[in-house]
Amino acid sequence: MSNLRQMTDQAGEWLRGAGPHSEIVISARIRLARNLAGYPFVNRANRRQRFEIVERCRTELTNGRLAGGVLWVSLQESTELDRQLLVERHLVSRQHAQAGEDLPRAVAIGTDETFAIMVNEEDHLRMQVLRSGFQLVEAFEQINRIDDVLEDNLEFAYSRRFGYLTACPTNVGTGIRVSVMLHLPALTLTGEIEKVRRAARDMHLAVRGMFGEGSEALGDFYQVSNQTTLGRSENEVLADFQTTVVPQIIAYEQQARQALLRQKLSQLDDKVWRAWAILTHARSIGTDEVLSMLSHLRLGVNLGRIDTVDIRRINELFLLTQPAHLQKITGREMDSATRREVRAQLIRQRLGAR
Amino acid sequence: MSNLRQMTDQAGEWLRGAGPHSEIVISARIRLARNLAGYPFVNRANRRQRFEIVERCRTELTNGRLAGGVLWVSLQESTELDRQLLVERHLVSRQHAQAGEDLPRAVAIGTDETFAIMVNEEDHLRMQVLRSGFQLVEAFEQINRIDDVLEDNLEFAYSRRFGYLTACPTNVGTGIRVSVMLHLPALTLTGEIEKVRRAARDMHLAVRGMFGEGSEALGDFYQVSNQTTLGRSENEVLADFQTTVVPQIIAYEQQARQALLRQKLSQLDDKVWRAWAILTHARSIGTDEVLSMLSHLRLGVNLGRIDTVDIRRINELFLLTQPAHLQKITGREMDSATRREVRAQLIRQRLGAR
């Protein structure tokens, strides 16, 4: 799968650091879950059926009708490193990457990486659109276009009563999951982040770390997503995020940032410059510390406290410093200690330090 | 006491970073305790007697017979900031600085700061010679010359049976205390420092931090000193340090440093460069962190891993970043938060960072 190699040269569109409110909203993601009519769900299907599902989808997804073209990756034939690479790029879920060697499964990736369609994950089809900044409406339009294209030739399992049928009841109905990745360093520094967490829980929203379920919130990055889809229309779920949840969190974070600028400028600058210092001088560094330092640096750039680097480069480093990316870039497998050294070296190079 | 002002321009001779084994031995210090015959010890003397002791010593210490000349500082008339400054420069003890306002007391400081003589500390006279590097013999010769000069005109309390009489029994006899300040970062990094501590305790040596009794060992700096003087000649005490204690610790530290170079070069470089990074970029920093960072930087320079700064400048920063020095340099009293900022600024300036 040498075509995955070129991926490591840069980050996907969602890390471009552009889009509305990109100083706080890293990316917006919409996912739809669909299953082919006439087949059991993946966990109930036998080996032959699973193969048929993959082949049926492959035919449909690679027929050239999806805008921009796709890269088809057969996961059970991929190396572990390649699968890990796709996880780091948010193109497949950790579960999809780590499923047994004998589960036929795949992912179809849009050439610009704005969309990815997992085949035989929990559902037959899990489509996602991932866009930089707060482009939720654009993401919704794009995923609907994809959904429409696929529905021309594939029949999805659908119930008049429940809507789209899915393997897990929390996705039944519209099958839509909306999530936004937020950078909330000021709320974290001031401790107000707990209020946001509580408010999100009260609204039945999940708050997770950068790498989804089971990942801790590191480096002040938080993924906020809806939990259930039954009984609510896609538009309602979307409207919640578009008009209430995200704008409110953005406003809180902006207030906290202004408070830092007014009342704690010295501490703020200290954090920002120390982050820059560590990133440009460390000779050995782990991913957690990188995430934390990049977070402070990103805050500093966004608040105009430092201008030694731009947001796009910072965003790229989030990705390129991950273990699989590092190993793809250097073209060799490395133990953790070596990775720490190579990671530090890569960061210094990318930031123009010696 | 405006004549203390100029002190803050640089560090004393003991921080010159020169002298034998200065990569490990920061300084060697010898102290003698003496009391005037015919007067009670300080804690038993009345106010009039205490004044007389100070006056008697002032006459003798400022008569021009001490080589290089002295600066006479009357401590009860000094500001708290000036007294703190003298403590930071190791010219008076913390106890001497903090004694009550009404205790007449003083210190006579050699112009090059290689010696200081406290009057009315625990004993009537506490003379110390403090030299950079492992110059114990030189220090011993110098303090003997001072002792001889003073004994020409002052009669010291002496007992045929016990030797020189002192207020505290641990100093009776020769009244000599020898101490060396050691920089042991490699033994600290490898954890072997605990062995050194245990060995020192077994030899009845005290191991303390940079600022003497009650101070923690910070930044990998350790003061090793003898505990008792009764029953041992000055020469015996001195020979212990000169031929056994210090050379052995030096050898251990050198072995540990070589082991770091051979086996943990990446971790070593990481520590060194991070220290340089923090010191040249922080916008707010406390004394403990400065000590720790300067320690790593000093190790890096001594092992040839970094050449952005020389040892003398590093040694100066140990002193100039202390609270009283900072306030003398800027000419104003500052709260702790402001000191942290000014300290960071001073370090950046001295290290040539922006």
Share of helical residues of chain A:
40-55%
What is the makeup of the main sheet of chain A?
8 strands, antiparallel
CATH H-level name of the largest domain in chain A... which superfamily?
Answer: Glutamine synthetase/guanido kinase, catalytic domain
Q: What's the arrangement of strands in the largest beta sheet of chain A?
A: 2-3-4-5-1-8-10-9
CATH class of the largest domain in chain A: Alpha Beta
Percent strand of chain A = 15-25%
Instruction: Give the domain tally of chain A.
Output: 2
Q: State the end-to-end CA separation of chain A.
A: 34 Å
On the 0 to 100 scale, the average pLDDT of chain A is: 90
Could you say which structural class the secondary elements and strand pairing of chain A correspond to?
alpha+beta
Assembly status:
homodimer
The unreliable regions of chain A are none
CATH A-level architecture of the largest domain in chain A: 2-Layer Sandwich
- Series of secondary-structure elements of chain A, N-terminal to C-terminal: EHEHHEEEHEEEHHEEHHHHHH
Question: How many helices of chain A in DSSP terms?
Answer: 12
List keywords for this structure.
homodimer, 354 residues, alpha+beta, Creatine Kinase, Chain A, domain 2, eight-stranded antiparallel sheet, two-stranded antiparallel ribbon, 12 helices, 10 strands, 45% helix, globular
Summarize, please.
Chain A has twelve helices and ten strands. Chain A is an alpha+beta fold and 354 residues long. Chain A starts with 24 loop residues before the first strand and ends with a helix.
